[in-house]
């Protein structure tokens, strides 16, 4: 499980409930950005926003911290959109109403299909995200005539240390599946591995949550089997791994 330490728990629990052994191997550290002038300027745009979009649970966690730091509240008339159920749940836990989430695709493409984002000409849209996210959502909304601002409220970086026990297990062939739930995680995993260990990534069974990440892993050189879950949630990911395991046992 390659997720950041504070996010790995629910997936690990589901794996263990399915009689698997969850090995934590965090490849990403997520932390808030410094109080930069551009961040203060960006978050001030929320006051005039017609729509606010949160693109991940991390965007909710760190975005709301930024709003609190600058004593800014989202206007009750502002529509709040979430990229998926997990993000929406985080918002509701904080007492914020969610105007909508995509029906099926829980990504930028799914957001852009939402009726709330079809007619946005002249509207101000603020997107809460991490540093260096995808540009697809921004570019399409601008093309539709919206005025779009980012609040980049968290950053992803490599961990200071790697788990040597988990690394030894992987080298010894004791890891059956590696979960990767973002392109950033795939990038970080390759950066963490020494050149002599790149074959571990290239030949391992990878479990992920979208065809987009599957394609990215292929571009990075993965030649092993890639399991893509039917949906973005942890339950769907574990279900896909279970199906693979059952099929492997029958062979």
TrEMBL record:
Pfam families assigned: HEM4 (PF02602)
Gene3D superfamilies: 3.40.50.10090
GO BP, one annotated term: uroporphyrinogen III biosynthetic process
Pathway: Porphyrin-containing compound metabolism; protoporphyrin-IX biosynthesis; coproporphyrinogen-III from 5-aminolevulinate: step 3/4
SUPFAM superfamilies: HemD-like (SSF69618)
One of the record's GO molecular function terms: uroporphyrinogen-III synthase activity
Positions of the Tetrapyrrole biosynthesis uroporphyrinogen III synthase domain: 13-238
EC number: 4.2.1.75
Enzymatic reactions: hydroxymethylbilane = uroporphyrinogen III + H2O
Family statement drawn from the similarity comment of this UniProt entry: Belongs to the uroporphyrinogen-III synthase family.
Protein name according to UniProt: uroporphyrinogen-III synthase
Species of provenance: marine metagenome
């Amino acid at each position: 499980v390659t997720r950041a330490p504070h996010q790995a728990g629910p997936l690990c629990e589901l794996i263990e409930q399915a009689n698997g052994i969850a090995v934590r191997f965090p490849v990403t550290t997520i932390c808030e950005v410094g109080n930069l002038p551009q961040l203060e300027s960006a978050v001030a745009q929320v006051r005039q926003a017609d729509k606010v979009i949160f693109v991940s649970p991390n965007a909710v966690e760190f975005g709301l911290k930024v709003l609190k730091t600058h004593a800014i509240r989202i206007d009750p008339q502002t529509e709040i959109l979430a990229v998926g159920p997990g993000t929406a749940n985080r918002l509701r836990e904080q007492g914020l109403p969610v105007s909508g989430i995509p029906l099926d695709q829980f990504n930028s493409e799914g957001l852009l299909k939402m009726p709330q984002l079809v007619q946005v000409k002249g509207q101000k849209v603020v997107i809460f995200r991490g540093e260096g996210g995808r540009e697809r959502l921004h570019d399409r909304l601008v093309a539709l005539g919206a005025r779009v601002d980012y609040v980049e409220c968290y950053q992803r970086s490599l961990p200071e240390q790697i788990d040597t026990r988990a690394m030894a297990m992987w080298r010894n062939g004791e890891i059956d599946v590696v979960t990767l739930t973002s392109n950033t995680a795939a990038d970080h995993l390759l950066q963490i591995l020494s050149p002599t260990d790149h074959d571990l990534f290239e030949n391992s069974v990878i479990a992920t949550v979208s065809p987009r990440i599957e394609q990215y892993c292929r571009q990075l050189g993965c030649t092993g089997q890639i399991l893509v879950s039917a949906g973005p949630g942890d339950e769907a990911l574990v279900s896909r791994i279970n199906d693979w395991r059952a099929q492997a046992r029958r062979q």
